[in-house]
């Protein structure tokens, strides 16, 4: 590679020029009205806000003043006519018994579970079905009057749902024995049904400019979510890559190492010493620093001095999603848990799912079976680029000091919980 350094420099200069031209063309298009501004992006739309907007459209009593028009079209697009749901008398609820969207006509019940960024957990669907059943005075054939719509970005097959024994195209079975209960079911997606539905209702309200604009904005968001948004292609950049393919391969092969080196420099030489100083004399100790070498894994581990051997819980800083962010949390040191020990996941969640930690949830970790993680806003959305920015602005030490204070604050707040949890874990050793 060193022998061809001039070729690399030439390629990168040409790439920068081509990209600048591309940005200029994009800017000209934006000035002509072809822009990326979207009210839902401005509002930081996430799963819960998708659910809110969908519920608002589906609600016959909603502020769109279209009665049950949108709900009728939704039932039609989702091919639910056999369910015989009365849209004219329907009521729509958000977070009813934790159900994302619940729709009922007083006799029939539709459960919409919206899964954008997470998978099914804690036997949600089974619990939601039972919650509806428990509320009914008339129990006769109640399960036949419930329909589950499982909404995901794409059409891929749903192979497993917690608490559900069998998933078929049109129904769910609650268990495998002769008492098995059947509930109507359909998997729908943003990619297909939601976009088809939005397209159809846009035609219905084309003369209502303000409402049409809002729905068009949402349509654009869904298209971006499902990789169907308009892309401003740069043919010059594509040509440069094709003409310099071997150089691009070398860049790709060295990209991850360069990214890891930036992360390791910040953690090892700036953050680690500051955390070590702040916990000196406390009940905690730092594990020896090991350079970060994987896409997803623990970078810093902090253990309680009484619990350093065998099966225990420790505080971690780790990377996630291919250098995209830093996150902190608690991780269980045992790689594989048996069925009885899976309760430990619930215990970890109980520690963190209160107060300021309500957004933390259990996920599979790199070194432990379960970790509870919370992203750190100042070190998310392309971690490496942020670190480069901090380094170029001579802010490594300043940011490391802030991050050390932030992590140690949470570490000391959780001291009692960590001790109590490790006592429980010790019984499993």
TrEMBL record:
Which InterPro entries does its entry note? Answer: PDDEXK_4
Q: Which is a Pfam family this sequence falls into?
A: PDDEXK_4
Q: What is this protein called?
A: PD-(D/E)XK nuclease family protein
Instruction: Please tell me the species this chain comes from.
Output: Campylobacter magnus
């Amino acid at each position: 590679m060193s022998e061809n350094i001039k070729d690399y420099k030439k390629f990168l200069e040409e790439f920068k020029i081509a990209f600048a031209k591309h940005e200029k063309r994009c800017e000209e298009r934006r000035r002509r009205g072809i822009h990326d501004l979207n009210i839902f992006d401005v509002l930081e739309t996430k799963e819960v806000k998708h659910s809110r907007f969908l519920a608002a459209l589906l609600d016959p009593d909603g502020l769109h003043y279209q009665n049950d028009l949108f709900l009728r079209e939704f039932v039609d697009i989702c091919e639910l006519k056999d369910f015989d749901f009365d849209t004219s008398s329907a009521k729509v609820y958000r977070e009813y018994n934790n159900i994302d969207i619940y729709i009922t006509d007083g006799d029939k019940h539709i459960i919409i579970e919206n899964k954008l960024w997470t998978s099914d957990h804690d036997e949600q669907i089974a619990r939601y079905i039972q919650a509806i059943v428990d509320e009914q005075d008339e129990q006769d054939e109640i399960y036949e009057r419930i329909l589950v719509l499982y909404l995901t970005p794409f059409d891929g097959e749903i192979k497993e749902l917690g608490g559900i024994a069998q998933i078929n195209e049109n129904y769910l079975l609650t268990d495998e024995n002769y008492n098995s209960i059947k509930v109507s079911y359909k998997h729908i997606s943003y990619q297909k049904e939601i976009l088809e539905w939005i397209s159809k209702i846009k035609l219905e309200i084309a003369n209502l400019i303000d409402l049409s604009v809002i729905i068009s904005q949402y349509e654009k968001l869904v298209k971006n979510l499902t990789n169907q948004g308009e892309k401003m292609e740069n043919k010059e950049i594509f040509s440069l890559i094709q003409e310099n393919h071997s150089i691009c391969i070398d860049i790709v092969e060295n990209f991850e190492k360069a990214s890891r080196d930036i992360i390791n420099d910040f953690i090892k030489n700036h953050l680690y010493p500051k955390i070590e100083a702040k916990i000196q004399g406390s009940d905690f100790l730092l594990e020896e620093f090991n350079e970060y070498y994987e896409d997803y894994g623990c970078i810093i581990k902090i253990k309680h001095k009484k619990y350093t051997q065998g099966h225990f819980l420790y505080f971690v800083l780790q990377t996630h999603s291919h250098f995209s962010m830093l996150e902190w949390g608690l991780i269980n040191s045992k790689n594989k848990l048996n069925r009885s020990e899976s309760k430990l996941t619930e215990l970890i969640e109980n520690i963190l799912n209160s107060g300021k930690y309500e957004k933390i949830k259990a996920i599979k970790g790199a070194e432990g079976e379960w970790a509870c993680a919370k992203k750190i806003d100042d070190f998310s959305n392309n971690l490496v680029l942020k670190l480069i920015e901090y380094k170029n602005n001579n802010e490594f030490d300043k940011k490391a000091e802030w991050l050390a204070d932030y992590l140690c604050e949470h570490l000391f707040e959780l001291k009692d919980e960590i001790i109590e949890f490790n006592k429980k874990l010790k019984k499993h050793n």
